[in-house]
Amino acid sequence: MNYPFGTGRARAAPYALLAPGILLYVLLALGPSLATAVYSFTDATGLPNSPIRWIGLENYREFLTLGAASKENLDALIRTFVFSLAVTVVQFTLGLLVAVLLNQKLRGTKFFRTLFFLPVILGVTIQGLMWTLFLYPLGGPLASFLGLFGLHSDMLGGQPAEAFAWVIVVQIWSNLGMTMVIFLAGLATIPSEVYEAARIDGANRWQVFREVTWPLLTPSVNTNLVLTIIGSLQAWQLFLVLTGYRAGTQVMGYLVYATAFGQTSGTTAGNTFRQGYGAAASIVLFVVVLAIGLTTQYLLRRREARLLE
Amino acid sequence: MRKLIVIFVVALMVAACGGGATASPSTSAGAQPSDGGGASTAPSLSGTVRVLIHQNPPFVDFMGTFNEKFKAKYPGVTVDMAVVNANDLGTSTQTRLTANDVDVIDIFSFSNAVQPYMKNVNPPGWQSLIEAGLLLDLTDQPFVKNYDPAAIADAGSFNGKVYEINLGRVGFSGIYYNKDLFTANNVKVPTTWSELVAACAAVTTAGVPCMTAGGKDGWPIFVGAYGLFGAAYPDQAALAEGLWTGSVKYTDPGFVELLKKAQIYGRDMMESGASGLAGDAAPGRFASGAVAMFPGGTWYGAAIETLKPTFQWGYIPFPGSDNAADNKYMFGKYDQGWAIAANTPNKDAALAYLAEFSDPANYQAFVTAVGVIPTQPGAKLETAIGAELAPYLANFRLGFELVWNAPKGAGQFASPMQNNMFKPFGTFEDPQAAAAQAQADLQSGLDALK
Amino acid sequence: MSTTMTPNAHSSGGPGAGVAVRRRRMDPGRMTAYAFLVILAIIYIAPMAMLVLTSLKTLPEFTKNAVSLPTSFAFDNFVEAWNKANFPRYLLNTVIYTVSSAVIFVVTGTFLSVAIARRFVRGGGVVFTLFLIALFLPPALIPQFQLILRLGLYNNPIGYILLFLVNPIGIVILVNYIRTIPVELDEAAAIEGCGYLRYVLQIVLPLAKPAIATVAVLHAIGVWNELVLATIYLTKSDYYPITRGLIVFNGVYGNNWPVLAAAVLMIAAPMAVFFVFMQRYIIGGVTAGAVKG
């Protein structure tokens, strides 16, 4: 692209200024992740002075094909897809809806905006704590409310499907604000003249949205889709706080964490150091996320290009 | 671009080389041979002792007091104590030992060692630490003799050397029960399974839920009915070996019987909503009088006492069998202990710290504060839970949890912890089906060995 | 890309802005909108209200009935949380970590994003993809730890801050936003004799305020609430952030919810205030300085 700020030495300015960012990235993100990839082919324990042997694909074989444990790993993978799909669809739609509504000058916009974004500010641990408190089955608020109708539910302690559903709800609740904020920022870039022009042309509200707002929102749409999909594929901290390590509820992110820190038995006994194996698990997750993420990005770019024609 | 590649490669090398590196230069700095391995009584020690412990309020409070005492005796030494969640203890131990950033560590007992009949299992964390040379050999330290040799051998040794002094045992196959409620309803203290079922029925008719436990955390349900396993298989090490060699199967009629009882326990005895209760909330429920019984470990004793229940309570073994004689055991484990980092720059002070802790007076104070079964012969657990436990101490047995390792590839139900397979905690409704699944899960790992 | 649109004017809202007369008459569309927002708001307020309610109760009150209203307003919980968790010191630490990392990241990130969005750098697309991939990267806890250790920055605030300087989400947001800034602006600025550096700092930065504010807030939240990394990397108690202070209430989740709730509220409060303050920048649209026509 055209660089209007000079030639020769001046041309180097962007390179020089972006160098620190790249350096940090390579040092702190890419480097360690490549190291993880390398470790995944070894039997490293993560402790110094332990001998490290190259074992090739052995870790992967164990994770993906060895016995009933590997079937559970694959189940976790499927569950991760389900989780991501559910969360993305609902969070994206609701977030867009709320942003559009709040973009009109209704009264109390600022209040709603702050309210819906508040959970994002609190962070995962607090979100989990709040809902653990709220969903307390023995006399907690929701339990009491249901009790008024004679209903009872164990909620997070109930059957795996129910607990899983609740985690989906909390995940959406917690991150809706972020989706909303990104859409709001995107909506703010659309000048009001454009809407007025469309309305003068006789378009109704839905047509305005479809023909004007939606295409112009493409950057925010892309950002939100990528973030939500990837975030939900990797999510695990909420599971840690809300359900703990429970059969039938694991998702890949949690599995990776638990494997790396030897917490797959649910008790404090049995802490093992298996950095190599944990690394393999995390690479598996990475490959999955990469595949889905890059595909999403590719599809979105193609759509963007088509829109510009 | 080339510069980027160079940086990239350097970063990669630096990051990748971490694993095989030797730890930072070793310890001989500052290790004056303390002759005869001694608590150098002269308070000429200096420097800092960095201590890492896990969160447990009575323990943390006790350590505060102990640290004051230690500093008074050795004014030249600073104690820098850090507290982490029990779940994070393993990770913190690993990172801090690697960074040589800790001197005295709180570590759980050495358990789950690889037994001779086990193949294809991962060595437990503590073994990796020892093999990496990160724990100090304590074999010849005088303070080790303060402890029960069996405790040292069972919970703190490896290959004939001592690496940990274990501070106490806990029992976990018992039930806390509300004495007053029982008396008021004319309920007999159960010594057999049928009596337990009857007792539950009686209190439920009187309008009080029978039991509670921290169902949300999973393991409290399993631990609560340890007595079921224990009554059927009093030699837990043999149970573990039997499962490995195939002489014991989950589908054996005896085991299925056990699972049937486990189902009754989870479905009928536990109060509804227990599956959503967090582990730490359960003692509170019991202490408030909301339920008649609370199966759990002796470590809850201190918590219950702090909550000052308005009623008399007791602790009995969980009667898993209809033969009272089978129910006399108390199953438990060795709990926490101390170890020292092999590369500590301040070995003398660290050793003095442990020596001071092992002093019978200090140790007794610890036992009283935290409520463990002592591992020093002279100490006594004289709190309420201690009194309740006393009759069963002679029949203390280690739970299989401490010897068990599942083979790699085994499914999630392969370990003998199937109490929480049944609804409402799990998804199973048929003990036979649960047994079959458990056996399949275990078999899958065993088959992979061939 | 919206490069053919008229330059962004000062826009205070979408359709409906400027038509002030409608206020009294509520059309059904608006009513449904309100109804929906109110219901959603209730779903949002409920758990938070529960937290606040709990923090004002005493423990016996809470154990007896979790949902009753507190009989007195037990501010003791807050005092206890403040004292026990050594708040002032740890709060200061957290503020330092958060502000430093946010500032450094915004600066390096902006330069990265401008260069990528405008393709001023060869291979910018590759770099962007690399950052995208960084979003997917597995947590490399142990290698990162070994790296920081070897750099000598273990148990060191600088090392800790370093961990937070790579934030792919921020880059993605910034790049997508900067792409909406018209290219004509660059040329206009260059014609007026603006160098690249000045251009970014004095023109792009103000224009990208909504995105930068968003990124800064998100980044700050991540650093503010971090517990695991703080536990691993900062073992000297002088360096603890306030999340480490929460540990004193851990393990008593079931036992002392009121004090825990109070502690949680105290930790969350500054961030909430910060966000409210930043709101003006995040959603305000673009302010003056834009090129006309």
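qc> The two ends of chain B are 52 Å apart (CA to CA).
qc> done
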